[in-house]
Write a structure and sequence with these properties.
This protein has 213 residues and is mostly helical. It is 75% helix and 0% strand.
């Protein structure tokens, strides 16, 4: 699509945001290698020179897309809620919020999930390094909480990373099936979350001892 000379001029912050949104859309559909700055410019209705005026390289534009997604209000909401559940030592709410936050992310805007899948398939180190940089501190926080609950005797002594993989992996698989592959979602998300967390908790929660005569 050629630039529209009659298009209203945007101020610099708004133009930058428009380019990031257009880039996110293209990167999520074609990957870093497949999407070109020329296509991104056309999607935004500007010239390629405008793209490079705001982002000197394609890599810097890609980084801005990554920063935009991981710095979102949704990410901050997740941290606030998960910390609140840990402060209360509410294991059910802890697992449930991890599950529902993943579903909400896919339902709200699955483009970031697609972009990260492309990064893995392409072996694109910039995207993968960013994921590790953002995710590792959160992972360590969640893992430490599980360890503390295990020390208190409230959860079975199973490697915490496997517990986190179990709940997040289940959520991502369900979200991918229903949001990317077109399988029908036959239950409301909240009901699915309750069921999946119940399955997890039944497997890892300690059982009260029974006195035998």
């Amino acid at each position: 699509m050629p630039p529209n000379p009659g298009q209203a001029r945007l101020n610099r912050p708004d133009r930058r945001q428009q380019l990031i949104e257009s880039a996110l859309d293209l990167f999520s559909r074609k990957g870093f290698e497949g999407a070109t700055t020329k296509e991104i410019a056309a999607a935004a209705g500007v010239t390629e020179a405008i793209v490079f005026r705001h982002f000197p390289s394609k890599q810097m534009l890609y980084q801005a897309v990554l920063d935009r997604c991981h710095g979102s209000s949704q990410a901050q909401e997740f941290l606030t809620n998960i910390r609140a559940s840990m402060d209360r030592k509410d294991d059910l709410a802890f697992f449930r919020y991890i599950f529902t936050a993943i579903l909400r992310s896919f339902r709200g805007d699955p483009r970031m999930e697609r972009l990260l899948l492309f990064a893995a398939l392409e072996g694109h180190e910039q995207g993968l390094a960013h994921v590790r940089e953002v995710s590792n501190p959160i992972y360590e926080m969640l893992r430490e909480y599980l360890l503390s609950r295990q020390r208190e005797g409230k959860l079975r002594s199973i490697e915490p990373s496997l517990i986190l993989i179990a709940i997040s992996g289940t959520a991502k698989q369900y979200a991918m099936l229903t949001q990317m592959f077109g399988y029908p979602a036959e239950m409301p998300d909240e009901q699915v979350a309750d069921a999946m967390v119940a399955i997890l908790m039944t497997g890892i929660k300690t059982q009260p001892s029974r006195n035998r005569k």
